[in-house]
Amino acid sequence: MIPIENFLILSAILFAIGFYGVLARRSAILILMAVELMLAGVAINFIAFATYLDADAFSGLVFALFVITVAAAEVGLALGVVLRLFRERRTANVDEANSLKW
Amino acid sequence: MFDRLPLPSQFDRVIIAGGTVAAIVATPVLVVLLGLLLSDVISGPEFVFYLAAIVVVAGALGAVLMPNVVHAALCLVATLLGVAGIYLLLLTEFIALVQVLVYGGGVVILLLFGLMMTNAVDDPVVTDGSQKPFAFLVAAVMGGLFVAVMVDARWGDPTASVVPFVDFGTRIFRDFSVPVIVVAILLDIALTGAFINARRAEEAPLERAEEAAR
């Protein structure tokens, strides 16, 4: 059987790559894509722990399922906000939407 | 030769270039992995794991580094399908199916719609912020820390228990009925909010009139 560390290291790498994307990208939708990468890393972690360390092997699956659901809701909502922003400002870059910045 | 193929010119260039790069990168990796497999250094499941892990990491790097937003979205598809393969290796075929349907089908299409309606309208090539070195530093430190902690920790003996596919629905609605309802309400509110938020202002003349009267 594959050691659990393999999955955990893969999920950590995926999370770190997604974090880099969140910090480095300027377009709001590309930031969302990077957030999806981070969520995928977290879900891999949940399922690895559920399969390897939980005798019941169910709670982790449910959490991963909810992560996927919430991510889908988040993408839909964020897309609406970004479209509205683009219509008002003709830009989707987060550093140009700074009217709340003091 | 490529001129005679009935493909839109940009699309065939993307496919040919992407396929060539993928083949050049994948061939040595496949040869090395097959050699390891045949010499019994790694087992069959580990072979599949490393293959899926390479797809996941390469796709993720493409998704955060590619300057062209459409290419980045296509790299994201590769990552999400690779993650579905990882779920299959973890013996959770239901989550893998949900991953392919929801992410590969829905989320990526939504993201592509968003890209087409915002960035890709004028220019599909974006520039990243000037904070790149700082972002790389923070991500490298965080990833290194996570990997170090996870390698260092001592995990218990693996139980490798599996929930059968047929039990999943029964158990999720019996043991987790309240979270399911909460998530359902969350989805409902979020998508209704997205619809109301993204609606064109001209389509709501009544609200405009009320605002003007105020």
Could you characterize the architecture of this molecule?
The complex is a heterodimer of chains A (102) and B (214). Chain A is built from 3 helices and no strands. Chain A has helices at residues 4-24, 28-53, 59-89. In chain A, helix 1 (4-24) runs antiparallel to helix 2 (28-53) and helix 2 (28-53) runs antiparallel to helix 3 (59-89). In chain B, helix 1 (9-38) packs antiparallel against helix 2 and helix 2 runs antiparallel to helix 3. Chain B has 9 helices and no strands. Chain B has helices at residues 9-38, 44-65, 69-89, 93-117, 119-122, 132-152, 165-175, 177-198, 205-213. The model of chain B has no long low-confidence stretch (mean pLDDT 81). At the A-B interface, helix 1, helix 2 and helix 3 of A face helix 2, helix 3, helix 4, helix 6 and helix 7 of B.
In short:
Chain A has helices at 4-24, 28-53, 59-89. With 102 residues, chain A is mostly helical. The model of chain A has no long low-confidence stretch (mean pLDDT 86).
How many β-strands of chain B, per DSSP? 0
* Helix proportion range of chain B: over 70%
% residues in beta strands of chain B: under 5%
How many DSSP H or I helices of chain A?
3
Instruction: Give the largest interface pair and sizes.
Output: A-B, 71 and 84 residues
**Overall form of chain A:** elongated
CATH class of the domain at 2-128 in chain B: Mainly Alpha
Proportion in β-strands of chain A: under 5%
Report how far the terminal alpha carbons of chain A are from each other.
Answer: 55 Å
Architecture (CATH level 2) name of chain A: Orthogonal Bundle
Order of helices and strands of chain A: HHH
Q: Enumerate the spans of chain A where pLDDT stays under 50 for 5 or more consecutive residues.
A: none
Form type of chain B:
globular
Specify the number of helices of chain B.
9
Outline the biggest β-sheet of chain A: none
Average pLDDT number of chain A = 86
